Amino acid sequence: MSGLDPEDFAPLRALAHRMLDDVFDRAEQMGDGPVWQPMPQQARDAFNLDLPEKGQDAEALYGQFLDQIRPYSNGNPHPGFMGWVQGAGTPIGILAELLSASLNDNCGGRDHAAIEVERQVIRWAAEMVGMPKEASGCLVTGSSLANFIGVITASRVVSPELRREGLSGRKLVGYAAETAHGCVSRAFDLAGLGSDALRLIPVDELHRMDDLALAQRIREDREAGYHPFIIIGTAGSVDCGAVDPLEALADIAQAEKCWFHVDGAFGAFARLSPEHAIMLDGIERADSLALDFHKWGQVPTTRAVC
Ligand SMILES: Cc1ncc(COP(=O)(O)O)c(C=O)c1O
Hints:
Bound molecules: pyridoxal-5'-phosphate
Number of domains: 2
Number of helices: 10
């Protein structure tokens, strides 16, 4: 045999049909079993074997999936899962993943339909929060990466010389609420700015960034010779779902000539709720926005837009 396709597709097709039935049986009965169960050592040991020298039979591998992987999954599709902000996925999303895997498109470029799908998703996300339809973006693995891209983009727009010269003594600083997700400070670290360059601003009794404290800290930083370049508001904090006063932050960003980035990892979707949309007023003024489809959007695989 040459190539990686099976000589006979029939057994693989039969296995695929069985898998699909098992997948939907599980989806239908999801609420019947436990949300989560600990993985016994014996099951863990199955993933501590030597590198196999020969390929393995698909049936046998599927058996291993059923016995040693599926029972010990994260549990977020279960109706009783109460953990954080993780989405549950959907049965239709499982099929979308199947179709997308069957195409195996590389969306890094070239001329094909998946690129148009991606562009449409980005246009719709922008429209959903009230940004102009021409807003651009890209799909990445999650809001950790999307926030990082926001920080990198802001620093290069505000200080274009960074691209060639690096920081070269520039004292760029940014601002987020003390309750901002940990990935924001890691973004400063990864961007080479240093996590100390992220000033953590206190929150009020509603867990929203105190905008007066923000304005004060910016003044102090300027007096001390720092260069404020980005204000990061959170729309839906990971600890309790608080939304920073986005209009006030946008005003300060405008007055201070700072980039305004919003981390809307899960909360940006509240823009679709007639009742709650008003809480996010100001999000449409963001220069960049991170939002996750795999949280309230319930898309099964981690996928975010920036
Ligand atoms: C507010 C907020 N920002 C960023 C993130 C990081 O998102 P991801 O896990 O998609 O990288 C999360 C994840 O829970 C979050 O809630």
